Structure formats: C-alpha cells, structure tokens
TrEMBL record:
Cellular component terms (Gene Ontology): nucleus
Bias (Basic and acidic residues): 26-41
Localization terms from the record: Nucleus
Stated name of the protein: Nuclear prelamin A recognition factor
InterPro entries: Cytosolic_Fe-S_CAF, Fe_hydrogenase, Fe_hydrogenase_lsu_C, Fe_hydrogenase_ssu
The organism of origin for this protein: Heterocephalus glaber (Naked mole rat)
Keywords for this protein: Nucleus, Phosphoprotein
Region annotated Disordered, chain positions: 1-56
Length: 484
C-alpha cells in the first residue's frame, strides 16, 4: 500500500506524562479486491468509496491530506473483502482521523475531548531505530517524545498484549493435543494472530470467507496482540483512570496495513460492550512521514506502562525471528507439558524455501511434535491443499501472510516503488535479533493482570477478553484455485 501525504505541522500542547489521569486539554467467479487496488501485474480495480480529498472540507490547523491508495499487493485479504460500507470505514484509518482528535482536544467544548493512547507493535520499533539511526531503546524514547509533542497522553509497548496471546495459544494447543483423535480432529492448530480479528484481515479473513471448512475449526481462538491491547486499554486502563471507554481514542502503530482492516470491528464483543478496542491504525511508515515533515522540537520521553511500580517500559521481544514467536513459545511449552522435555535451542529446517520451515521434537527415533512456520500466501496455500487432502503432517503451524514475517510488513519495509527495501529489512532483522527476549511465563505483570483484571487464568472474563470465535460460511469451490 502506498501512501503519499502532506503531513501537517502541529503546534499544540504536550501530552501528560505518567499514569495519573490526564487533565483533558481545554480552551466463475472472478477474484477481485473491492478496494482501490493495483496488482503486481498492473491491473487496477477502483471502488466507489469516498476519498480523503473529498472529505477534507473541515477547517483546522492541519493541511489537507492526499488520497491513501490501497494496493492489492499490500493487503492480503481477498474474495471481494471490503464492502462499500467497510471501505468508507477503512478510509478513516489514517492520519487525518488522528489529527481530527488532536484538533478536537484543543477546542473549548470539553465534551468532545478524548484521552489519546498510542500502542506500538514490537516489530515497528526496529524500523524506527533503522530510520533514525538510533538504538532501539533511544528510538522508542524519540518516538514517544514526538507523539507526546503532538498531544498524545500515553504511549504503550504492545509486548505485554503478545504475552497474553502466546500464553493462551500455549494452553489451547495442549488442550487440543489431548482432545485429538480420529473421531475428533482437533489438530493441527493454525495460528490466528495475522493480524488477528476474524472477518477483517489477511490470513484469517481468507480462511473464513474463502476456505471455510476444513480450515476454520483449526484456527487458534486466542486473540491477536492488537485485539488484546484494545481490551487492555479500553477496559483495564480505562478503569484505572476512571474513564468510560468512549473517552479514550486508541491508536495502534503497526508494520502492516491489514491491521487497519483488523481494527474495523475488533472491539465489539462481550468483553467490551459497545466499545471498539482500536480506533485507528497508523503504519510505521505513516508515522515516519509525520516525523520527517515536522519541524517540532522533540524531547525524548519515557514510554508509559500500565503498572504503578514501573517507571518506564523496557524494550523486549519474544522468541521469533520476525514475529511474536508463537511457534517457538508453543513448541517449548508443549514439549515440557506433554513429554517433560526441556528444549533450549530450537532448530529450524528450511524445506521448500526459507519461508517454509519445520521444527520437530524426536525421542528414540520417534517424532513427538512436528511444527511448521509458513510465511507468505504461496506457502499457506500449499499447506491448505495438504490439509484438504488429509496429508497434513503437522501438529501446529505458525501462519503469517507476509514473506519473512512481521518485520517485512508492507507498512514499513517498502521502497517508493512498492518493493521490499532489502537494506532496511536487513537492518531491522539485526536490530530485532539484539532485543532481549523475555518469555511470557516470566512476566510478573502478566500474572498480576490475570488476577486483577481477568479474575483468574481460567475465568469466564479471561475467556471473553482473550478468545474469539470464527465464522465459516459456504466456501467458494474455486477459492483454492487462486494464484498468489
């Protein structure tokens, strides 16, 4: 997806630092994507969706923003995935909506004011570090300082949301392993964190709207980190600050554009009745454009935390080469829980290509666990074909729509011409590899949230806040013949 925008200058007030509640500012069916698209072979498909330029009549301190063009090669959803209504909603997932809230917060009508919260994906930080030529910690502080200079009140790291997603995935895999039989095919388990929200994303949307059975019963029900973070901000954090969820405007900074699709409907659930978990998604590239075109004097600022006993969030990651590492963490947990085997180092064996890798646990010549990582839709399609034919050798597959994983998200690792910026990607991979790894099981804050926020690890509230369900409409018979 290519975004060409003139990003306005902001001269408003700085946001509040720390956790105390901020004082709100005063005074034969053809497969086509129904978004405005440009495929790799040059085919263009334009929907009847109002453009940003048409909607820029509102006066404010910000200049007009150019149209945001969504390219099919950048968004992996398919099967006429965006209706006209969804397209109109998607057009609001941009910097203009973010600036609109900043402007509202400057007006005297305090009833319109909102607390601005920004959550940053761990895979976005290496991009900022590479672009700013800083360490990942310094880049995180610079990003936080810039956002607060615009008027953002809180900036959070989303690593803790990934903790919950991984822990719930671990438990679900062990449960499925025990339930699996010839009569009840609970395995393989396919990850659902790319990006996560059913009905509005790349991999899971493809599985639901196109594949249907036999794929959807195998999707992990654990919510994606973005979904979990939405619940943390609009439920746990809102209660901490004594704010109704609708008074918080939650922005996620993410490496890919599918996160915008995910945000459209992610919050409407029993866990957040009437509230949307994520109000706006901005890609790392969009934020970088703002920083490059701004003349603000920015002072580095500490990233906020959800906990009163922590002064600044420490930059950390999970054990994945370019993602949140569901495969590595679930594999270690399953080996210990199911076979009492402690796995220190995980050895990946590349099969068809570098984006299709296998991990096995063997004992006395017997394969106990066989996991795989499948990145990019060509590899995903091959796995689905094997699953349909009943020739599927894996217990678990980490599925990511972007080749190379989340670091290669099209919202940050692309050149002006839409190709992968290999130099920047190599930089990001090196930076990401140097970030300290912290297993989610070792986080005292996660255990604290399980008890204080969710009333226990196996409570009904935990189930509602951390798990989802999937639709499985009648599948198009030609869907699996699509070429990716």
């Amino acid at each position: 997806m290519k975004l060409t925008r003139t990003v306005p200058k902001w001269t408003g007030r700085r946001g509040t630092l720390g956790l105390p509640a901020p004082a709100l500012p005063r005074c034969d069916r053809k497969k086509e994507c129904s978004k405005k698209t440009k495929t790799d072979d040059g085919e263009n498909v334009s929907p009847d969706v109002p453009s940003l330029a048409q909607e820029n009549s509102e006066k404010g301190e910000f200049h007009k923003l150019a149209d945001a063009k969504i390219f099919l090669s950048d968004c992996l959803a398919c099967d006429s995935c965006v209706t006209a209504e969804e397209g109109a909603q998607l057009s609001q997932q941009n910097a203009k909506d973010f600036f609109r809230v900043l402007n509202l917060n400057k007006k005297c009508d305090t009833s319109e004011h909102k607390v601005l919260v920004v959550s940053v994906c761990p895979q976005s930080l290496p991009y900022f570090a590479a672009k700013l030529n800083l360490s990942v910690t310094d880049a995180s502080r610079r990003l936080c300082g810039f956002l607060k200079s615009l008027g953002v009140h809180y900036v959070f790291d989303m690593a803790i949301a990934a903790d919950f997603s991984i822990l719930e995935s671990q438990k679900e895999f062990v449960r499925r392993y025990h339930q699996h039989s010839d009569e009840q095919r609970a395995l393989p388990m396919l990850t659902s964190a790319c990006p996560g929200e059913p009905r509005f994303q790349g991999w899971v949307r493809y599985a639901e709207r196109v594949l249907g059975h036999p794929v959807t019963p195998h999707l992990c029900t654990a919510k994606s980190p973005q979904q979990v973070m939405g619940s943390l901000v609009k439920d746990y954090f809102a209660k901490q600050q004594n704010l109704p969820p609708e008074k918080i405007f939650h922005v996620v900074v993410a490496p890919c554009y599918d996160k915008k699709l995910e945000a459209l409907q992610e919050g409407f659930s029993t866990a957040l009745p009437g509230a949307q978990g994520t109000d706006c998604v901005l890609t790392s590239g969009e934020i970088t454009q703002m920083m490059e075109q701004s003349d603000l004097s920015v002072k580095d600022a500490a990233v906020d935390t959800l906990f009163r006993d922590a002064k600044e969030a420490v930059v950390r990651r999970h054990d994945g080469t370019g993602s949140d590492g569901h495969l590595a963490h679930v594999f270690r947990h399953a080996a210990k829980e199911l076979f009492n085997e402690h796995v220190e180092e995980i050895t990946y064996c590349a099969l068809r290509n570098k984006d299709f890798q296998e991990v096995t646990l063997e004992k006395n010549g017997e394969v106990l666990l066989r996991f795989a990582a499948a990145y990019g839709f060509r590899n995903v399609q091959n796995l689905v074909l094997k699953l349909r034919k009943g020739k599927f050798p894996y217990h678990f597959v980490e599925v990511l729509a972007c080749p190379g994983g989340c670091l290669n998200g099209r919202g940050q690792a692309q050149t002006e011409h839409g190709h992968t910026d290999k130099f920047v990607l190599r930089q990001m991979e090196g930076i990401y590899a140097d970030i300290p790894v912290q297993p989610p099981e070792s986080s005292a804050h996660v255990q604290e949230l399980y008890q204080e926020w969710l009333e226990g690890t196996d409570s009904l509230k935990a189930q509602e806040a951390l798990h989802t369900s999937y639709q499985s409409p009648e599948r198009c018979t030609a869907a699996l013949d699509m070429k990716w």
